[in-house]
Amino acid sequence: MSLRVYNSLTRQKEPFQTVHPGKVGIYLCGPTVYKSPHIGHMVGPVIFDAIKRYLVHSDYQVTWIVNITDVDDKLIEKANEYGTSMKELAEKHTAEYLSVLKSLGIDQIDRFPKATEHMAEIIKITQELIAKGFAYPVDGNVWFDVTKDADYGKLTNRRPEDQESGTRQTEGSGKRSPADFALWKAAKPGEPSWDSPWGKGRPGWHIECSAMSMKYLGDTLDIHGGGLDLQFPHHENELAQSESCTGKPFARYWMHNGLTRIKTKAASGEWKDEKMSGSIGNVVSARELVDKYGPELVRYFLLSTHYRRPIEFTEEVLSNCQKALSVFTRLFERVDRLGATAATAAEVQGDLGKEVSAYRQKFTDMMDDDFNTAGAIAVMHELAGAINGYIEKSGVEKSKDQTAAVNAAAAVAQLKAVGQTLGMFRFVGQQPSAGKGEDTGLVDQLMKLLIQVRADARKSKNFATADAVRKGLTEIGITLEDRADGTVWRKG
Question: Is the pTM of this model over 0.85?
Answer without folding.
Answer: yes
